[in-house]
Specification:
Chain lengths: ~140, ~140
DNA sequence: GCTTGCTCCTCTAGCGACTAGAGACTGTAG
DNA sequence: CTACAGTCTCTAGTCGCTAGAGGAGCAAGC
């Protein structure tokens, strides 16, 4: 019966030890068996599940979405359209975020470019924040 | 002596009432005077400060950064280089975030495009999450 | 004067996804 | 045998709010 400790699982999966315990608590990972000394033992399937979770987190899926995706994975006969729709929602969110961040980038660049590096009294950064009418995107 | 209620201040500044109280608690806003009935009264300078805070938050500056920016604003004789550097840091952060989100976008699009809308057993979304070797950016 | 209904007050607790730390135990290498 | 790394559980903290409880102030209508 092979199986590894939580520390080894952390190394393999790239998820920190306390975070693994946290995922267990959140119900993403079934409670693993323990050694006589009460230590968690992770088998291959658990390690795969951990890796799945890490990838999903890296793609920005939240715990709820991951729970659903894992449930789907556990029942492979079902239609994949829920998984598809979760991924699409996530994509839309990412696209929107990029849009917003690009607008911020533009505004920050304008702010910084206008700064003459003198005193605060003349600082463009402070000025723009004080009087937003001076900013490039008056929509917000 | 003109001055407005917290509700009016919220309307004018675009910051919600509890959030204004929260900012006061966090030390971004000096404690305003009160009416006999113990209600906060906001004058012009406080309203301007609130607007400053809102703009800064919209640009993604965190509370600590805003505290510094406000301190600088309160002492306009100083060099503006700390303000400049806060803004530059923020810009760098935004640029990095955009980069990461774009990579996510690409990967999510690939995932979704590959999905044949059949069952989970054949779902590309689940597959990619399970076996990350299939993903386009093997760097993470 | 009295009621209705809105705004305001303080205080505490919750969100999400961890992270940090305390204090105790286990397991292993020298 | 001792040192020390790893693990255990539990609680509390992070950030920037947000929600709710339970109470008080205040203006308008009757």
């Amino acid at each position: 019966m092979s199986g590894v400790s939580i520390g080894e699982a952390a190394r393999v999966s790239g998820i920190k030890v306390p975070t693994i315990r946290y995922y267990e608590q959140m119900g993403l990972l079934p409670e693993p068996p323990r050694t006589e000394g009460n230590r968690r033992v992770y088998d291959e399937s658990r390690l795969r599940r951990l890796t799945f979770i890490r990838h999903a987190r890296e793609l920005g899926f939240d715990i709820g979405a991951i729970r659903t995706l894992l449930d789907l994975q556990d029942n492979p006969g079902q239609s994949c359209s829920p998984a598809d729709s979760i991924a699409r929602q996530r994509l839309q969110d990412v696209v929107e975020r990029i849009e917003r961040l690009k607008a911020l980038q533009t505004e920050l660049e304008r702010m910084i470019a206008g700064c003459s590096h003198a005193t605060i009294a003349k600082c463009r950064v402070i000025e723009v924040l004080t009087d937003h009418g001076q900013c490039g995107t008056p929509t917000h």
